[in-house]
């Protein structure tokens, strides 16, 4: 059984997609051990509560320094004994020590086809605003392992979504969530839970 810890900052739509996929059997062999947010007002915490999933807020604002926050944050994550950590819209920089400890056991969902529209400053609506400014015809989402860079870890899954005439950033964001993010994030977790993902260097192989 894969013990999963989900890290969130906001509404938790990707968390909900994971919860629903576990409940419906789309994700197998998996238990959500806990949800941690850096934002006490994150609706994601409410989603976790409704499903009886242990949840807590650990915010950098509550600590004297980022070092102390990092220590407490890692302590809370470690206490849940995760086999896999999922960043589902988590807007806090992950401590380097934690990245090293959970190498190839921490994944992130990003709302673009990496390497397009990714890296520092590309999050949330900003990704879709830039894509529309650039006039691209295809966008999408990527699930990747977390490494020391921003959106630079080995890519597990990607799914393309077409841009439609008249799209606003909000409309495009919603379509990317529905058609890509909520599909490939649960799929990646299920593949990992069933031992079908192998990482060699910067490349990921998925066994059928």
Describe this structure in words.
There is one protein chain. With 208 residues, this protein is of the alpha/beta class. It is built from six helices and nine strands; from the N terminus they run βαβαβαβαβαββαββ. The chain has helices at residues 13-24, 43-50, 66-79, 96-101, 125-134, 169-193; strands spanning 2-8, 30-37, 55-57, 84-87, 106-110, 138-145, 155-162, 197-200, 203-206. Strands 3-2-1-4-5-6-7 form a seven-stranded mixed β-sheet, with helices on one face. Strands 8-9 form a two-stranded antiparallel ribbon. The two termini are 20 Å apart.
Keywords, please?
two-stranded antiparallel sheet, 208 residues, single chain, 9 strands, 36% helix, 6 helices, alpha/beta, seven-stranded mixed sheet
């Amino acid at each position: 059984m894969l013990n999963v810890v989900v890290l969130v900052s906001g509404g938790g739509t990707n968390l909900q997609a994971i919860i629903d996929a576990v409940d419906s059997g789309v994700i197998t062999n998996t238990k959500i051990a806990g949800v941690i947010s850096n934002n006490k007002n994150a609706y994601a915490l409410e989603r976790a509560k409704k499903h009886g999933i242990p949840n807590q807020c650990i915010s950098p604002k509550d600590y004297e320094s980022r070092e102390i926050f990092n220590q407490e944050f890692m302590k809370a994550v470690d206490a849940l004994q995760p086999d896999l950590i999922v960043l589902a819209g988590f807007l806090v920089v992950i401590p380097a020590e934690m990245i090293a400890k959970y190498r190839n056991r921490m994944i992130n969902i990003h709302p673009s086809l990496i390497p397009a529209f990714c890296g520092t400053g590309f999050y949330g609506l900003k990704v879709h605003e830039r894509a529309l400014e650039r006039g691209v015809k295809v966008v999408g989402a990527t699930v990747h392992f977390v490494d020391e860079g921003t959106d630079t870890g080995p890519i597990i899954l990607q799914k393309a979504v077409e841009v439609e005439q008249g799209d606003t950033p909000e409309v495009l964001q919603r379509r990317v969530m529905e058609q890509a993010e909520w599909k490939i994030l649960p799929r990646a977790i299920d593949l990992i839970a069933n031992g079908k993902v192998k990482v060699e260097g910067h490349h990921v192989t998925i066994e059928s």
